C-alpha cells in the first residue's frame, strides 16, 4: 500500500507590487529590439512595473541593479516579486557591456539576495539571462531524462541567504545562444509566448519553454542545431505570475 502523502502547496504572495528591470545591449545584437518589444508586452500583461535600460556599459549593469534595489528599499508599499532581464553578448559567468568590458553575473546576482536586499527578503527574484555561455554548438542527440525530486526543509526563524531565486539561462553552460536578426532570440520569444499564453507555477511554465525549444530546430551555417534553456531554482514555494 502506498502511504505517501501529497505535498501541501505553498505559494508566494503576489498581492503586492511586481517589478521588472530590463538591461539590454543592442549594439551588434540584431533582433534584440524584437525581444525588448516582446518583454514589454509580457510584463504589461502580467501587471509588472518595468524599467528598461538600453546599451549599458559593464559598470552600468551594476549601477542599474544597485539603483533598482535602492528604489525598492525606499518604497512604502509591499513588493511581492522582481524580475531582472539581462541581455548581452557573453561567456560563462560573464556579460559584455556596450563598452566591450565584462561584468560578472555573480556580482549582479548578489545585489538582490536575501542578505543585501531587505525589500525582497523571502520574496521571489527571477533572473532571465539571454547571452551565450560559450562557443559550443549542439547538433542534437537522442536523449532520455530522469526526474529528480528534492524536498527542502525550511527553518521557521531564518532563511538561507540564497533562497527564493530563480536563474533562467537561454542556453546551457559552454554553449551558444541563438538570436534571429529580425525576429529576436529563440529563447525570449518562446518564453514570452508561454508566459502570456498559459497559466500555472513558473517552473511548470519553464518546463513547457524547454519542451518547445527542444522540439524546435535552428539552422546555422547550413547545419541543424538544437538549443535549450537551463533553469536553476532555489524557490521555496510555488510562484504564479497570473
TrEMBL record:
GO terms for molecular function: cysteine-type endopeptidase activity. Residues 29-136 form the Caspase family p20 domain. GO terms for biological process: cell differentiation; positive regulation of neuron apoptotic process; proteolysis. Heterodimer of a large and a small subunit, both processed from the precursor; the mature active form is a p17/p10 dimer and the intermediate form a p20/p8 dimer. The keyword Hydrolase applies. Belongs to the peptidase C14A family. It comes from Trichechus manatus latirostris (Florida manatee). Keywords: Cytoplasm, Differentiation, Hydrolase, Nucleus, Protease, Thiol protease, Zymogen. This is Caspase-14. Its main location: cytoplasm. The gene is CASP14.
Amino acid at each position: 500500500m502506498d502511504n505517501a502523502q501529497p505535498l501541501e502547496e505553498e505559494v508566494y504572495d503576489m498581492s503586492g507590487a511586481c517589478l521588472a528591470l530590463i538591461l539590454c545591449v543592442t549594439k551588434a545584437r540584431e533582433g534584440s529590439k524584437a525581444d525588448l518589444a516582446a518583454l514589454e508586452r509580457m510584463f504589461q500583461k502580467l501587471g509588472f512595473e518595468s524599467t528598461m535600460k538600453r546599451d549599458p556599459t559593464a559598470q552600468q549593469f551594476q549601477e542599474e541593479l544597485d539603483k533598482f534595489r535602492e528604489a525598492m528599499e525606499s518604497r512604502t508599499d509591499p513588493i511581492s516579486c522582481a524580475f531582472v532581464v539581462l541581455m548581452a553578448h557573453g561567456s560563462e559567468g560573464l556579460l559584455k557591456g556596450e563598452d566591450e568590458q565584462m561584468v560578472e553575473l555573480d556580482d549582479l546576482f548578489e545585489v538582490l539576495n536575501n542578505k543585501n536586499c531587505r525589500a525582497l527578503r523571502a520574496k521571489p527574484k527571477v533572473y532571465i539571462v539571454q547571452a551565450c555561455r560559450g562557443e559550443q554548438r549542439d547538433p542534437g542527440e537522442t536523449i532520455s531524462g530522469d526526474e529528480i525530486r528534492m524536498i527542502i526543509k525550511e527553518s521557521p526563524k531564518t532563511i538561507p541567504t540564497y533562497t527564493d531565486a530563480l536563474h533562467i539561462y537561454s542556453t546551457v553552460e559552454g554553449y551558444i545562444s541563438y538570436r534571429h536578426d529580425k525576429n529576436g532570440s529563440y529563447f525570449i520569444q518562446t518564453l514570452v509566448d508561454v508566459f502570456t499564453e498559459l497559466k500555472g507555477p513558473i517552473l511548470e511554465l519553464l518546463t513547457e519553454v524547454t519542451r518547445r525549444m527542444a522540439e524546435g530546430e535552428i539552422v546555422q551555417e547550413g547545419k541543424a542545431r538544437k538549443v535549450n534553456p537551463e533553469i536553476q531554482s532555489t524557490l521555496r514555494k510555488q510562484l504564479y505570475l497570473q
